[in-house]
Every structure is written in structure tokens, then in C-alpha cells.
Design brief:
By secondary structure, this protein is of the alpha/beta class. It folds into 2 domains: 7-209, Alpha-Beta Complex (2-enoyl-CoA Hydratase, Chain A, domain 1); 213-260, Lyase 2-enoyl-coa Hydratase, Chain  A, domain 2 (Orthogonal Bundle). The protein has helices spanning 31-46, 85-104, 120-127, 154-162, 164-173, 179-184, 197-209, 213-226, 231-246, 249-260; strands at residues 7-12, 15-20, 52-57, 61-63, 109-113, 116-118, 130-134, 138-140, 177-178, 190-192. It has a 6-stranded mixed β-sheet with strand order 1-2-3-5-7-10, sandwiched between helices. Strand 2, helix 1 (31-46) and strand 3 form a beta-alpha-beta unit. The longest helix is centred in the middle third of the chain and has 20 residues, at 85-104. It is globular and about 60 Å long.
Length: 269
């Protein structure tokens, strides 16, 4: 386990679990937590022993987004916002780096949403590839309720997850959705009893660990790239990606295992 102050980072059975660990503050997007998360994701990205990343939160929140006590705070606050609009835009761009770091990692990233995921916290979960939710989870693009624009990716990620109309409804109203409502609109893939959340998420992660890492990473890249490409460009990228896997050791192992009627052992080569 790596040593961090505001997150926990643990690797076991080729699964890296990154836990936001400021439960008394509902795991806000504090400067330290964001910096440590970006660092841990960089470690996971370059660790060949890691094939899947799980992101979750300690306590009753996944991540409550920005610390409301900091917004509009005076200069005497522990971590006041910069004074000018220009400086605040620069500060926000730094805040976005955490969300972008989650989306940019080539390995599968699963969100185990254990509790409240609001504002930037919801956007963090949306940056993950798949979301599993505890029955105690709650979701909101809460920005409008305090007169803010959702600047950490909600206007990009949310329409792609739930459709334009529902995304605008959530963004305009800031309404809170419970776990079952989130499942109904496709925001999460599965809702489980709270005590079964990590077991369920790890079970799916284990399935991915046993899969071919190269093919999985290329497929992830193709899916996200394909959302912004025309059909011909997407097919061209797919032809390149498949040609890479056709010449891989994993493909040869998969064929051999199929012929020998045994589970394949994929090495990501």
C-alpha cells in the first residue's frame, strides 16, 4: 500500500483500489485529495501488475464534490478561492485535471459508489467506465442549487450516460436521485445492498483481470474515440486495433486454450 494522507491506494490480485479518505468532510475535492488521486492513477497506469482500478469513498460519501465551505469563503478560510475570475478559471482547470486523469487511464476504471456523489463527485463517477452503486448512494449535479455551472465535466459526461433530456433536467434542477432512480436512467449499471458493494465490484474486476489486457485497453480507447469520430474513421481505428491483437501473444494463447479446452492465461503481450 502506498503512503498517502487523503486517499488510500491498495493493490491486491491485480486490482488497484483507490479510496477517498476524508470521510468527516464527505470526501470533498480538496487540493491534497486531488493531487494524491492523480499521482495514484499515474502509478496504476504504469504498474504492469495492475489491470483494473476501483475508485470508492470512505464513510457515507463517495465524493461530495467541491467543499461548499470554501466557496464564497473569506480570505481567512483554510483554503480560500483565488480572488479574481481569471485566477479562479485557472484554479478550476486544475480541478478538472483529476477528472481527466480518471478518463485518460487506459485500464478499466470502476466506480463503487458507496454514498453521496454530488457535483464534482458525480462527475468523478461519470469519468469512470462503469458505476456500481450501494443502495445508500445518492446522485446530483447540484451546481445549479448554488448558482454555479457544472465545470468538472457534467455537461460532457452526463448526456452521454443518460441522454440529453435527462441530463439537462438533472443539471438545471440539481435534483437528488436515489440509487434505484439512477439505475432506471442508466446512470449506474447495478445497485446492490451496501454491505455487498465492494464484493460485487471486485467480482467484476476479477473477471476483467482474467481477460486480455491489450484487447481490453484497445477496446476502451476505441469506444471513447468512436463517440467523436465519423463511422469511416471509427472503422479505420478498429482495423488498426484488431491488427495489433491479431499479432499478439494473447491471441495465440486464446486460440491455443480454446483448442485445449482450458481457461486462457493472458499476459498483455
Amino acid at each position: 500500500m502506498s503512503s498517502y494522507e487523503e486517499i488510500r491506494y491498495e493493490v491486491e490480485d491485480r486490482i488497484a483500489t483507490l479510496t477517498f479518505n476524508l470521510p468527516e468532510k464527505l470526501n470533498p475535492m480538496a487540493t491534497g485529495l486531488m493531487a494524491e488521486t492523480i499521482d495514484a492513477l499515474e502509478v496504476a497506469a504504469h504498474d504492469e501488475d495492475v489491470r483494473v482500478v476501483i475508485i470508492t469513498g470512505e464513510g457515507r460519501a463517495f465524493c461530495a464534490g467541491g467543499d461548499v465551505r470554501r466557496l464564497g469563503a473569506s480570505d481567512s478560510a483554510e483554503e480560500p478561492l483565488p480572488p479574481t475570475a481569471y485566477q479562479r478559471r485557472f484554479w478550476l482547470k486544475n480541478t478538472q485535471k483529476m477528472v481527466l486523469a480518471i478518463r485518460s487511464i487506459e485500464k478499466p476504471v470502476l466506480a463503487a459508489v458507496n454514498g453521496v456523489a454530488t457535483g464534482g463527485g458525480l462527475d468523478i463517477s461519470l469519468a469512470c467506465d462503469i458505476r456500481y452503486a450501494s443502495d445508500k448512494a445518492r446522485f446530483s449535479e447540484i451546481f445549479a442549487r448554488i448558482g454555479l455551472f457544472p465545470g468538472t465535466g457534467g455537461t460532457y459526461f452526463l448526456p452521454r450516460a443518460v441522454g440529453i433530456a435527462k441530463a439537462l433536467e438533472m443539471i438545471w434542477t440539481g435534483d437528488m436521485l436515489n440509487a434505484e432512480e439512477a439505475l432506471e436512467i442508466g446512470l449506474v449499471s447495478k445497485v446492490v445492498p451496501h454491505e455487498e458493494l465492494m464484493e460485487t465490484t471486485r467480482a467484476f474486476a476479477t473477471r476483467l483481470v482474467q481477460g486480455p489486457p491489450l484487447a481490453i485497453s484497445l477496446a476502451k480507447s476505441a469506444v471513447y474515440r468512436g463517440m467523436d469520430l465519423d463511422m469511416i474513421a471509427a472503422f479505420d481505428y478498429a482495423a488498426t486495433a484488431e491488427s495489433i491483437t491479431l499479432t499478439s501473444e494473447d491471441h495465440a494463447e486464446g486460440i491455443q486454450a480454446f483448442r485445449e479446452k482450458r481457461p486462457p492465461v493472458f499476459r498483455g503481450r
